[in-house]
Amino acid sequence: ALWLMGTMLRPADEEGKGLDNTATADKKENSSSNSSSSSRFSALCRLTRALMAKPEDPKFIAIPPFKFMTSLEPQFLRDSGILSKQYFELFIKKNRILNTDTHYRQKKVNLMQEESEGYAKFVRILTNLPCVYHHGYENIGESNHDIASIEKEPWSKLSHTLVLSTVELIGTFDLDPNRCLDLIINVLESEIKKVITNDSRQVNDPYQMLRNAKGHSVTVHLLLKLILLFPKGNICHLLGFKFASYRSKGVNFHEQVDTPQSLYLTTALLASHGLLSLSDLQPHLPPTTEIESAYNVWREEYVKKIKKMGIVSLNSSKESTPTEKEGKHGHDVVNQSMDKNQFIQLFCVMLDIGFDFNVASALFQSQGYHSDMKVEDLIMKCCCLYPPLGAKICDILEKAIGPLMDAKVQNIGSSLCLAEEDEDGEIVMTTHGGEGCSLLPSDWYHKRPLELSSKVSLQELCSKIDCLVDPIVMSGGMGSKPVLYCKLCRLVRAMLLAENRSLEAEITNVHDSVLEFIERVLVAPLSLFPYNPAITSELWSVLSTLSYNIRHALYAAWRKHGLEKAALRSNVQPFKPLAQIESEVTTGISTKYLLKRMSKDNIKDMGKQVSKVAHNNPLVVFTLMLNQIESYDNLILIMVDTFKFMSVLSLDVMGYCLLVNLGGEGEKRNKLKDDGVNAAQWLSSLETFTGAFYKRFQDVELRGLLAYLTRRLHEGYTLELGVLLSLVKMAGGYGFMDSESTASLSDAQLEGRCGSLTLRRETSDFGIVEKIHIHSSRQLRKSLQDGGRGVVFLILLSQLRAKALYHESRDSPKQIKLIGNLYDKCHRTMNVLLAFLTDGSQDVTVDASHKNTGAIAQYSEVVPSLGELLNKYALANHDAWALCRPLIRASLFLEEDNIGRESDERLKSFNPKSWNFDDILYPSFSKETWDHITPLLFVRFFSHSIYDLTCPTDTYENELLRLKREIDRLELLQKGGRDAIGIQASMASAVAAAGGTQRDIREATAFTKEHAIELERLKTTTHILGIDMERQRKHSNYVINGLKSEKSELFSNINSNSSETASRFFSTCIFPRCLNSPEDAIYCARFIKLLHDIDTTGFEIIPLFSVIVNAVVGALYSITEDEAGCFGVFMNEIWRIISLWRYNEEAYNSHISFKPSPNDSEEMSHSNYVQKFNLWHTDLGTVFIGCLRSSEYMHTRTALIILSKIVDYFPSKSTLGDKLLAALSPLQADTNLMQDIKAMAQGYSSKLIKARDTGKWKEEDIRATQAREHKERNMQQSRIKHAEKQLEEMAKDIEESKKRIGDNNNSRPDTSIPSTERRHRPTPIFTPPAMVTAGASGEHGPTRVTSDRGSARQSIPPRTRDSRLTNQGPRPSPLPEPGTGPSVERWERSGPDGGRGKRGRSPSVSNRGRDSDRGHDKDDGKRLRRDLTPPRRGGSRLARR
């Protein structure tokens, strides 16, 4: 405002006058009074002076004088008194000189003498350093010198002289300093170019070039000394102009102009000496947006390439779809463009000469409009676009961790060498000593790009090298440096162990930054090393030190983005590197190819190929394999065999993948089939695979799976129980303890369950014993014992049974069949797991010196007491006793169970003698119950098992006899000779019937290593069974004698109401326990019989029978399938006694008479007992028929299960039997939609009819029997007539065939076999005797086929599938299995009496056999005539036989 007012109010005589004219200035000086006379202008001048003066009022702020100096006109400043006259004249003079130089002076006045001469002299000095100052101007040579050559002259004097000469030249010739600086930089660049071109060692490392620049070091250091004379800010502008000029040439001209390497080295050298600021140089370089756009193009092309992998186009030819070549070409174009990018190339050179990585990264410090870009992301993108940059960063990282590796990791290889070698290129030089040849600063001689202290912790190490590892991991550069990867693995492992101070215990506490580093730098980049098991081993050496939950967390982070192409759609930050995704896709394609071609025959070759593919991407391979297993359960065993070629890391990852698939992979996979009852196919397959996998590979981590199952059970989910059951059955070898269906157990199996563990194993599958892996069984037991996991499972399973019944589903109501199945599975799993945890058969072999490590001792350490189970955990009474029973028995029979003294104290707490009944037993039931049952009876009943009450001697002897026969058979096979011919023949026929090859037959008939192992097992089992039988016999006698001694105290508090006592005893003791298992059901029945046999005081068995029968009426409507099977076993034992006493009066009198009765009650006569029996029989029949006619599924099923178990003894009356058959008819009809009920009804109907026909119905009406027999005879006669009618029709068909053939075929003689046929007949070499026996019995057809032609009557071997072993000649067609061929039989004349006998060979088979032998007959008509013509009379002796 002041300036504007001053120009407007200035007097008119001064308007338009310039300041450059001196006369004008004089006139202004003379007329200053006139201009001041203007009142308005004068007032303005005074105001201006007042504004500059210091005010008296503190609120008023004065204006600084320099603001007036820079804003107002000189005349106005003079008139206002601000500018004095002297300074005004000086200003006018300077302004005049400036205007003259700008507008009037001619600059090119003397081109040949003034400026050109100065620049020439300056260039002469620069290009001949240091010769100019060392030898003088007259002796300038072309040879360069090092600092060592001028060592005698002080370096400071030389550099000082050069600086003075340079300043003198610039001042003398008035040279442009910026141009002089540009010349110095050009000379410096030229000198560095000479270093590059004259390097005789051909070293491509710029770091080594600059450190060993012999002949150029003095010149470069003197030039750097001269550069210090000029402002540093001008250096970056001059270098920036050079970079821009090269970049503009590349843009404006078609030829490619590359920025020379000497310019990059010059820039880096100046920056290393502190003469250049990288942040100031960045604006002169190309914008980073070019890198961004190039990266986007590169990523887009890479993603397209990955998406096209594995896709086959059926509409294109091979020439029209070069996807891989196009992808590679696109990558090459991007890489070539990045070769010229000045940002990336300068950054590479700076890293090469030894810049600190963080300092060099300052080049990427964003400024201006792209300030939001991160340096780390930009470097990562540069590594992706330019792979050599990633390799350089890997080299830097390897050098950085070198000293730390030497300090932390023991170098085994170097200790084996004779002498350590120095690092290549580590030549230390100094410029001050006169012998140095380095161009770098003196403090860079031992400098590394990243300095790491030997005392750094693992957490600090991860944070310091994070800036290096992040670009190479994201760009995939780690894949080209396997040595660096191995070094990182070894360093991390050594530091982990050093910080945790342990080699045995697992590391459970690791910092989050360390875990992130391991996952991002070690685990995920494993995908980049295909087919390299050594890399896998190095990674496992790190992961094996961590606990299983940390390892599983690392695997989960590995697959958090998804696998294969699914990772491209992931939004998880940071994104998964594309190189890893490409590797996963490649692995997935290879795995699918191999799995399609895998079979049982090529499992060895394909398994090796799969394991080879799985080294770097186990998650991809195992996910695909598990998907195949979920769909096809017949691949389970093949897949398990494949894993024997896998590495340890792969097996550990397999355990994690199994957990992921069991959990539904984070999705809501339905674990039930569409029927809502049965487990889904994928879950059943995974259950089987889990057991088979952990049985084969015992060392795979199992705690993660157990922890998952524990959590699922704790949450109330029971569908995964099959996994735990499969583990115990297959991996633990306890499949013999589980009965898939209690109703399917035979009497032999039930009796075997009453014996020892070995007897149970031998009788579970009728002598077929599954091979047990001792190591896997021990490993599983150890995993369950650690931390009491097994006891936790038992308690959860006991609690879950009630929850399965009464817990309401949140989604939808469950079907009653599903609820029953879940309840039974919980109980069955609990029984098998309890038996497995308390099995002490392997205690001696586990640890002979510490017997307290046995199964019972380990179990006793973790199981709660009986009172805690009842009160704290709220278990049912029978469940709590079941969990404590092994310990109670061990405490009662301490010496027999071989428990060491160290475990006595713990076991004594489970001895009932040490209990306080007031705290444990009495709170469980009401006072009225204890008025009828004594605590002694209660304890004795729940303390013992079936092993304590009986010894199944017959079962023991039968098994011993069977084992003896097997031993004899194998010993005969081992000896060989004529005695083994029959065994070999039977074995050969069995293998041939199964479709075995000649090699299989040969291996089966030889005594192999498997036979030797089986023979040894049989001998050991025989010895063990003999010992077990004697031990159990003594033990059961000991227990029975103890009960006999206490029989008067068992019912000491009995009152007059015996029926109430029986009811209390049944409801509190018998019924809860008989539903637990088949063994407990047998135990309950035989405990009742034992109480009766030992004449227990106060015990009456007949009232108890009445209570049991009445209980059946209610139990049928409230029990599950397995409980029905157990109750059926109990009823079978009880009804056997009831039926025996009913139909055998002598047996009744011997058991009932002379028995003490309570309260002097009268004895029941046999006639009264018959009435009781009739009443019981009727009641049971009524309730069973009601259940069969019920519309409820479970009522019908439980009734059929119980009826099937007691079919041998119930019903015994024809009236009820006929009613039951009538009730079964609707269930067997085709209208019944429940197929399982229909099958069960048909099975029970067959058993019931067989019982009726074999006389099991004791009270059957004679007339009904006769009527039934008459009906059956009529049906048999009708079947015979129907068969005869079919034979007549067959004969008619034969006659018609003869007529159609014609008489021409009759001309051929029918009395002999042609010579050609005899020539084609194979000669018998070996005829097993066993086959003759089989043929005689009619089970496998005839053993000889005798020719029917003429008198030759040659004996021909049978046409069996094992003819390849016994015959020479053409291979005959195989015979069908018995019962599978056509029903039409051929009748032939076999003797002189014209009788007709059957041949066990169908016409189709006979024709096939003859056609194969008569290949020369081409006349079909003749062949048919020969087959249909009856044989002639006669034959060989063997044929007549």
In short:
The chain is an all-alpha fold and 1441 residues long. A two-stranded antiparallel sheet has the order 1-2. It has a two-stranded antiparallel ribbon with strand order 3-4.
What's the arrangement of secondary structure elements?
Elements: H1 2-9, H2 22-30, H3 32-36, H4 39-52, H5 65-71, H6 74-80, H7 85-103, H8 115-127, H9 131-135, H10 155-172, H11 177-197, H12 206-211, H13 217-227, H14 232-252, H15 261-272, H16 278-281, H17 289-308, H18 323-339, H19 342-352, H20 357-360, H21 375-385, H22 387-400, H23 402-408, H24 412-416, H25 458-464, H26 466-475, H27 482-500, H28 512-523, H29 533-543, H30 548-558, H31 578-596, H32 603-613, H33 618-631, H34 636-642, H35 648-662, H36 681-696, H37 703-714, H38 721-731, H39 747-752, H40 757-764, H41 774-785, H42 789-806, H43 816-837, H44 843-846, H45 855-862, H46 866-871, H47 877-892, H48 904-908, H49 917-920, H50 927-930, H51 935-943, H52 946-949, H53 953-975, H54 981-993, H55 998-1004, H56 1009-1045, H57 1047-1050, H58 1058-1074, H59 1078-1093, H60 1101-1115, H61 1121-1143, H62 1145-1152, H63 1166-1188, H64 1193-1205, H65 1214-1228, H66 1235-1253, H67 1262-1301, H68 1315-1320, H69 1329-1337, E1 1345-1346, E2 1355-1356, H70 1363-1366, E3 1386-1389, E4 1396-1399, H71 1403-1413, H72 1420-1428, H73 1437-1440
Helix pairs in contact: 1-4, 4-6, 8-10, 8-11, 11-13, 11-14, 11-15, 15-19, 17-18, 17-21, 17-31, 19-22, 21-22, 21-26, 22-26, 27-29, 28-30, 31-32, 31-33, 32-34, 33-35, 33-36, 36-38, 37-42, 38-43, 42-43, 53-56, 54-55, 58-59, 58-60, 59-61, 60-63, 61-62, 61-63, 61-64, 63-64, 63-65, 64-66, 65-66
